[in-house]
Amino acid sequence: MLKLAGVKTYYGNIQALKGIDIEISQGEIITLIGANGAGKSTTLMSICGIVPPRSGSITFEGRPIHDMKPNDIVRLGICQVPEGRRIFPFLTVIENLDMGSFLRNDKADVKRDLDYVLTLFPILAERRNQAGGTLSGGEQQMLAISRALMARPRLLLLDEPSLGLAPLVVRQIFAIIRKINQEQKTTIFLVEQNANLALKAAHRGYVMENGRITLADLTVNLLANEAVRKAYLGI
Amino acid sequence: MEYFIELFFSGLTRGSIYALIALGYTMVYGIIQLINFAHGEIYMIGAFTALIVTGVLTYYGWPHLAIILIAAVLAIFYSAAYGWTMERIAYKPLRDAPRLSALISAIGASLFLQNYVLLAQTSDFLPFPSLISDFAFLDPVSNLFGTTDFLIYTTTGVVMALLTFLIKFTRVGKAMRATAQDRHMAMLVGIDVNRIISITFIIGSATAAIGGVLIASHVGQINFFIGFIAGIKAFVAAVLGGIGSLPGAVLGSLVLGWTEAFFTGYVSSDYEDVCAFVILVIILIFRPSGLLGRSGVQKV
Fold it and tell me: Which domain holds residue A15?
């Protein structure tokens, strides 16, 4: 479904991605784990066209997308929930969700999807007319995921959804992520620092170090891998 | 008391014109954090376009009402085209550059447009024909304000109402707010941010042009320099109200307009222009975020 081949991305003169290859198939949950500054978020920003790669190719369903504009990439069905949630702070909860469906014109379906996300996260229905910036961290994460779902993505990119949240909320968010994958058949690419959590939720995983992919395997194997256990799971 | 009321209305007229210009300042600032110093020139170009169109149509003997309407519409379109082009040439290439670069580019654009009009026209004040005959129903209050004042109040009110509706309820307006609050996130939900920025410049320039046409027919003369001082004062008004906030721009403009009117009326008209800058200094010392501005958003 999505294929990155030899992707190299730079911030000015600083190379953040040093030629990475990732392949994601329809219906999977794939995770990318690694330490701070390994290049995980940059990978997502490259896929979305915010920081386009300088060389290498990114193809989505066989179509090259690495030189497309961000809004055209969203139109193809790739949506990102960025790190730190990035809720529009002065828009209400409902307006934030409206922004998620910005490119859609099928009013009736949008309404149905709105009802769907509000049943996934009933707290958002309660807070519908509150400004996004006034929500708690967990509520903002729920809103960020819902906003992405409103675009009806086929590939959902999640950047550190567990960041700064209470363990109970994290568990709830991850349950929803699996549910979206099963019910909506949405393919999910999950970037996480919390390797333990991510490897348990996903089918396959990639390990990233200093802008390179160092390991790629089924998550069961990664969980058993001595090096991974030592470096990321602290066992 | 009657003198007070007179000054009140003259301040309202000034304030309304400042508001039409300040709206563009504040919208552009809200969306790309740029003080568009060339914005006052767009207002001046609006006035000149109207002057040229009225000149031509008067020569061909068109009816007054038609002339003023066509002149206003063409001034709006022409200024909007200038605003759009200016953004493309002077600001878009500097989108990711440090903010100071864009600011210098703005000052350059302002000087360029002033001198371009200076060369194309003259440095003299040119008379702007008064085409609007007095409304009979305003006779009872004609000692307080005239017909052009009345037009200025109503037009400003209508423009404000339309803009508020646009920003609050339409798809484009929501996209503008989203872009202003977080440009990268706006891209991630699929908003074509460059298009939204262009639209902002077009709307801001169009409202400034309306101000230009109104002030030209109110004062009765224009030259290439009118945009500079009006632009600076509208900028002060926008900062006073809280730059980035639409109601703030209007409130700041009215406060500035009244301060100037009462100061010139009761104290001295020699120091009229000083008023605005004294206000600017006071605001920057005591309330840098302005009357209705929000202090910086904490991004987590």
Answer: 2-233
